[in-house]
Task: inverse folding
């Protein structure tokens, strides 16, 4: 998480004579999200203000308006509600903005950063509402195109919600950002999006398959020297089974990820609803316990409501960023929280045993890295010794 010191010109502004902009929650490459207040209805809201460069892009503004209207018609507990959209005023540079439901909590990315990989029962608790929301949109003819942990919110009451429907399509309409949009989501793009930019419901299914792999293992399946290299790997390579990374993952989850991430869209689940039905069947077959997904404790959302302190002499100067440390935790819930500890089995394996297997996998990774580093150092030292004494040896 990144916290920015310094003022913000939009904080305190009144958009469209109705929406009072409050403290900043988060800043991304294309927009900034603020807490806000609908002064007409006296209702807290979230205000997503797009970057100033989009204010004069008519193609973007038209697509932005159309997508906002389409998403506002969708109704599902797993979707962040869109209340309104606008384009600001000349006094605030006319930046386009969205007014949305304010979800108190944090992002799935922040939760993964805090707690690491999830056991299958927690993965199921995340995927069910995500797929349900995507399925509603798919049946309405809409595609998200950018499913990733940053676009999944975990509310303080445990609800999981998908946000930013339609923004990628609007951003892609602006020539100045289309390349950044593609590269910014390289880890979750489907092969057809990488190949020709086309996306359908099966593209969102592919992204959820990659998401499921990441939730189970703690990282995405492909790596590379650049985001472009990561994106192109999926054109010829299958996503490996999660069980190849962490012991104890049921075969049913390997099969779920494999079908969702098939290279050919025709071989995947048709849409979010079909994949959700499979997740439900797996949960029933394995008798997975119910789980309430906890909101991240150190989220940007929580930080935004803390009293703002002036920078101390040791703090970064205005306009600079301070990287907050991540706090690694396990999925065993502390007794002083409101979340209930889940016990039982899945696929005949004790949940505690799953945790031990995961910890063992982490230790083995550290041991192998240490061994490789030690061997590299030994080879380097041997080469240096031989180089300095080659004359004596000859």
Result:
């Amino acid at each position: 998480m990144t916290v920015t010191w310094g003022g913000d010109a939009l904080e305190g502004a009144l958009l469209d004579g109705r929406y009072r902009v409050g403290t900043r929650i988060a800043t991304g490459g294309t927009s900034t999200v603020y807490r806000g207040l609908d002064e007409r209805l006296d209702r807290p809201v979230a205000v997503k203000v797009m970057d100033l460069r989009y204010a004069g892009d008519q193609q973007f503004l038209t697509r932005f308006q159309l997508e906002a209207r389409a998403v506002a018609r969708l109704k599902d507990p797993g979707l962040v509600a869109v209340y309104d959209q606008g384009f600001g005023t000349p006094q605030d540079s006319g930046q386009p903005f969205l007014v949305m439901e304010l979800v108190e909590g944090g992002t799935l990315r922040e939760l993964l950063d805090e707690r690491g990989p999830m056991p299958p029962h927690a993965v199921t608790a995340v995927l069910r509402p995500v797929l349900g929301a995507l399925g509603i949109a798919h049946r309405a003819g809409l595609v998200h195109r950018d499913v990733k942990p940053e676009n999944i919110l975990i509310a303080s009451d445990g609800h999981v919600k998908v946000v930013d429907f339609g923004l990628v399509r609007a951003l892609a309409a602006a020539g100045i950002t289309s390349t950044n949009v593609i590269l910014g989501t390289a880890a979750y793009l489907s092969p057809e999006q990488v190949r020709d930019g086309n996306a359908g419901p099966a593209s969102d299914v592919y992204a959820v398959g990659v998401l499921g792999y990441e939730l189970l293992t703690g990282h995405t399946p492909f790596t590379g020297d650049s985001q472009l290299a990561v994106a192109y790997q999926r054109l010829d390579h299958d996503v490996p089974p999660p069980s190849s990374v962490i012991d104890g993952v049921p075969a049913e989850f390997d099969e779920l990820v494999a079908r969702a991430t098939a290279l050919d869209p025709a071989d995947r689940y048709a849409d979010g609803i079909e994949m959700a039905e499979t997740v439900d069947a797996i949960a029933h077959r394995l008798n997975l316990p119910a789980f309430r997904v906890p909101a991240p404790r150190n989220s940007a959302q929580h930080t935004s409501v803390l009293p703002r302190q002036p920078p101390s002499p040791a703090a970064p100067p205005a306009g600079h960023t301070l990287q907050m440390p991540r706090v690694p935790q396990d999925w065993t819930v502390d007794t002083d929280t409101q979340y209930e500890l889940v016990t039982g089995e899945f696929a005949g394996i004790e949940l505690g045993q799953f945790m031990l297997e995961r910890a063992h996998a982490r230790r083995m990774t550290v041991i192998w890295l240490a061994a490789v580093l030690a061997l590299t150092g030994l080879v380097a030292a041997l080469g240096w010794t031989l180089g300095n004494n080659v004359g004596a040896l000859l």
